[in-house]
Design brief:
The chain has a single domain, classed as ACT domain (Alpha-Beta Plaits). It is built from 2 helices and 4 strands, in the order E-H-E-E-H-E. Strands 2-3-1-4 form a 4-stranded antiparallel β-sheet, covered by helices on one side. A hairpin with a 5-residue loop joins strand 2 and strand 3. The mean pLDDT is about 95.
Amino acid sequence: MTHQEPPKIEFPCENYPIKVLGETAHDYHSFVMEVFETHAPGFDTSTIRINQSSGGRFTAITVFITATGVEQLETLHKTFMASGRVKMVI
Protein backbone atom coordinates (compact mmCIF):
# COMPACT_ATOMS: atom_id res chain seq x y z
CA MET A 1 0.00 0.00 0.00
CA THR A 2 1.38 3.41 -0.92
CA HIS A 3 1.21 6.28 1.51
CA GLN A 4 -0.26 9.42 -0.02
CA GLU A 5 0.12 12.77 1.73
CA PRO A 6 -3.06 14.82 2.12
CA PRO A 7 -3.17 18.02 0.06
CA LYS A 8 -1.63 21.05 1.73
CA ILE A 9 -3.94 23.89 2.69
CA GLU A 10 -2.89 27.38 1.69
CA PHE A 11 -3.65 29.98 4.34
CA PRO A 12 -5.63 32.08 4.61
CA CYS A 13 -8.28 29.65 3.36
CA GLU A 14 -11.73 31.17 2.86
CA ASN A 15 -14.92 29.16 3.35
CA TYR A 16 -13.14 26.45 5.34
CA PRO A 17 -15.90 24.20 6.75
CA ILE A 18 -15.75 22.97 10.33
CA LYS A 19 -18.48 20.65 11.62
CA VAL A 20 -19.00 20.38 15.37
CA LEU A 21 -21.09 17.45 16.62
CA GLY A 22 -22.41 17.31 20.15
CA GLU A 23 -25.38 16.32 22.27
CA THR A 24 -28.40 18.52 21.73
CA ALA A 25 -28.96 21.05 24.52
CA HIS A 26 -30.81 24.36 24.81
CA ASP A 27 -27.54 26.32 24.80
CA TYR A 28 -25.48 24.15 22.42
CA HIS A 29 -25.80 26.53 19.45
CA SER A 30 -24.77 29.58 21.48
CA PHE A 31 -21.84 27.66 22.98
CA VAL A 32 -20.53 26.69 19.52
CA MET A 33 -20.98 30.25 18.19
CA GLU A 34 -19.13 31.68 21.19
CA VAL A 35 -16.09 29.46 20.53
CA PHE A 36 -16.04 30.39 16.84
CA GLU A 37 -16.38 34.10 17.65
CA THR A 38 -13.41 33.82 19.99
CA HIS A 39 -11.08 31.91 17.65
CA ALA A 40 -12.40 32.74 14.14
CA PRO A 41 -14.27 36.05 14.34
CA GLY A 42 -16.03 37.49 11.34
CA PHE A 43 -17.51 34.31 9.84
CA ASP A 44 -20.68 34.61 7.76
CA THR A 45 -23.58 33.53 9.96
CA SER A 46 -25.86 33.15 6.91
CA THR A 47 -23.87 30.09 5.77
CA ILE A 48 -24.19 28.11 9.02
CA ARG A 49 -25.75 24.66 8.63
CA ILE A 50 -27.51 22.93 11.51
CA ASN A 51 -28.58 19.28 11.38
CA GLN A 52 -30.07 17.10 14.07
CA SER A 53 -29.81 13.34 14.26
CA SER A 54 -32.98 11.41 13.45
CA GLY A 55 -33.65 10.85 17.14
CA GLY A 56 -32.78 14.42 18.07
CA ARG A 57 -30.06 13.40 20.50
CA PHE A 58 -27.20 15.00 18.55
CA THR A 59 -26.79 18.31 16.74
CA ALA A 60 -24.18 19.02 14.07
CA ILE A 61 -23.31 22.64 13.35
CA THR A 62 -21.18 23.47 10.31
CA VAL A 63 -19.54 26.89 10.20
CA PHE A 64 -17.51 28.23 7.27
CA ILE A 65 -14.57 30.31 8.48
CA THR A 66 -11.53 31.98 6.99
CA ALA A 67 -8.86 29.66 8.35
CA THR A 68 -5.73 31.62 9.14
CA GLY A 69 -3.40 28.74 9.95
CA VAL A 70 -2.83 25.35 11.51
CA GLU A 71 -2.55 26.87 14.98
CA GLN A 72 -6.05 28.37 14.71
CA LEU A 73 -7.53 25.04 13.57
CA GLU A 74 -5.77 23.14 16.36
CA THR A 75 -6.97 25.68 18.94
CA LEU A 76 -10.57 25.35 17.76
CA HIS A 77 -10.36 21.56 17.93
CA LYS A 78 -8.77 21.54 21.39
CA THR A 79 -11.26 24.08 22.76
CA PHE A 80 -14.27 22.14 21.53
CA MET A 81 -12.99 18.76 22.69
CA ALA A 82 -11.90 20.07 26.11
CA SER A 83 -15.42 21.38 26.75
CA GLY A 84 -16.82 17.89 27.23
CA ARG A 85 -19.86 18.95 25.21
CA VAL A 86 -18.52 18.03 21.78
CA LYS A 87 -18.19 14.46 20.51
CA MET A 88 -16.46 15.19 17.20
CA VAL A 89 -14.93 18.06 15.20
CA ILE A 90 -14.53 17.50 11.47
